[in-house]
Design brief:
By secondary structure, the protein is an alpha/beta fold. The protein has helices spanning about 15-25, 30-35, 85-90, 130-145, 150-165, 180-190, 210-225, 245-255, 270-280, 280-290, 305-315, 325-330, 335-340, 360-375, 385-390, 395-400, 430-440, 470-489; strands at about 50-60, 70-75, 80-85, 95-110, 110-115, 170-175, 190-200, 230-235, 260-265, 295-300, 320, 345-350, 415-420, 445-450, 455, 460. The protein binds zinc ion.
Length: about 500
């Protein structure tokens, strides 16, 4: 059962939280009203001594929307957020640990809603190529030769270290040996959705789609009681998975109420080929097969016509936008503002490091915001608060975990990131959220918590057993480079 008190009425103003949200965006005066009554927002009952109290110069809770709280403190107990109070009120509380963040902005942990973590070992292997030649001539041969459980273990550890250090507390992964990636995420204490890959051809770890599905379902069973891990079906793309397999995926996903994570409409070529071969756009085919639903996470969607837009809206499909990967592979542009204007949820992902080439969500956020303006011709498109929401709450909604994470609300897990805004290149600070979007980078992340457990402290990763990771990565890199040179020769 959720601890969230989602609908409440404020005792003095008589406003519901939804009304307060609307008021918040209506006028400056109402923003001030909201700040004044914030101290009185309901919170979960406090124990005699709380685990952690963090005082920050600014807190951006994401819910209520568009709000920046100055000189407040967040109360964390048993891994969850109990409430946000003024620093004056916080001074009266007993806490086992207190943290002062006088120059920092505290935000919800970032959610990287699409990637292929272990592909970090292929970072920079093949650049400046179109999607099909990048896949056919470089990535798929390299995967065929190198991918093993050991590869996935080292590659995912590399990715998890980069993501946590850069303020990402949750990632959605789609790669081979998902049970190994899940193990790495659990060891690191990071939240993850593992989409187990399903394609018609043999893949590393599964001879056919039936074996991939049965192994994936076993992983789902094994992970059921782990609060950090969720499992999704990962049919790679409409052009790599036939109707029969997709129907099986749909039937099982419906029965188990699991998400389906899939690359859809990544390029114009994909859509044109599908129309040529079947007379249908891929999204239309997914509709015929019964796959469109709020549990479908459609990654990329760079090609959207009016009919596609209606389908996405009618079925409440989740969109995962990967702007840097789309730009690097010249795949096209997802019309983010148009989707948002139609009430469609859009999350943000980096895609794998082989097509990005980093997993830096701050970089991705800035690219997304700038690209949305360029594509729509509107400088107001995807403003700073909307972009931050896309990388936090909208990500949680897309992955179906918004009751657990995505905003700094009482009852949710304390997945939080502090960004230090004291450095000279960040001065002066008029609007901290604008600074996060348009000026900051991942290296300014100072502290990261997942479910209240500290993963980065004063810029230092707090993971056990980091020794040896760099050596293991270098060993793989040497082998892969020699193999790539032989392949090219
Ligand atoms: Zn991808």
């Amino acid at each position: 059962m959720s601890l969230l008190n989602r609908h409440y009425t404020h005792p003095r103003s008589g406003l519901t939280n939804t009304e307060m949200k609307c008021h918040c965006t209506q006028s400056k005066a109402n923003v001030i009203l909201l700040r004044m009554i914030q101290d009185e927002l309901p919170m979960l009952s406090l124990p005699d001594s709380i685990d952690l109290l963090i005082s920050a110069r600014w807190i951006v809770p994401v819910v209520p929307a568009d709000q920046v709280l100055e000189n407040h403190a967040i109360i964390v107990h048993q891994g969850r957020i109990l409430g946000i109070v003024s620093q004056a009120r916080a001074a009266e509380l007993q806490a086992r640990e207190r943290r002062e963040l006088p120059n920092h902005v505290l935000i919800p942990g970032l959610i990287n809603a699409h990637g292929h973590a272990a592909m970090s070992l292929f970072r920079g292997l093949a650049d400046d190529l179109p999607l099909m030649s990048w896949l056919n001539d470089h990535i798929w041969p390299a995967e065929g030769r190198w991918v093993s459980e050991a590869f996935v273990r080292t590659g995912t550890r590399l990715a998890v270290s980069e993501m946590l250090r850069g303020g990402t507390t949750c990632f959605a992964d789609m790669y081979f040996y998902p049970e190994t990636a899940a193990q790495v995420a659990i060891e690191a204490g990071m939240r993850a959705q593992l989409a187990f890959p399903v394609v018609d051809n043999p893949i590393p770890g599964a001879q056919n789609s039936a074996e991939a599905i049965s192994k994936g379902l076993r992983l789902h069973d094994d992970s059921k009681h782990n609060e950090l891990i969720s499992i999704a079906f990962g049919p790679h793309a409409p052009y790599t998975v036939g109707d029969e397999t997709l129907i099986r995926v749909r039937t099982l996903a419906d029965e188990l109420e699991l998400p389906v994570h899939m690359h859809v409409h990544e390029t114009a070529f994909e859509v044109e080929e599908a129309v040529r071969q079947s007379g249908m756009r891929p999204l239309q085919r997914l509709r015929e097969l019964g796959l469109l639903s709020p549990r479908l996470q459609a990654v990329h969607m760079t090609q959207i016509d009016d009919q596609d837009l209606r389908l996405l809206d009618d079925f409440g499909v989740q969109i995962i936008h990967c702007p840097e990967s789309n730009m690097k592979l010249a795949s096209g542009f997802c019309p983010v503002q148009r989707l948002l204007d139609n009430g469609i949820n859009v999350a943000l992902g980096t895609d794998g490091a082989a097509s990005n080439n980093d997993l830096d969500m701050f970089g991705e956020l800035r690219t997304a915001a700038l690209l949305a303006k360029g594509v729509s011709g509107q400088p107001t498109a995807l403003n700073a608060h909307s972009a931050l929401r896309m990388a936090t709450l909208s990500g949680a909604q897309a992955l179906g975990i918004a009751e657990q994470t995505g905003s700094l609300e009482p009852g949710k897990f304390a997945d939080m990131v502090a960004v230090d805004l004291s450095a000279l290149p960040l001065q002066p600070v008029y609007h901290p959220v604008s600074q996060l979007l348009y000026t900051c980078n991942a290296s300014q992340v100072s502290d990261v918590w997942v479910a209240g457990r500290q993963k980065v402290r004063s810029g230092q990763l707090q993971l056990a057993d980091q020794d040896g990771l760099l050596e293991a990565v270098n060993e793989w890199a040497q082998q892969i480079q020699i193999g790539d040179e032989q392949h090219d020769a």
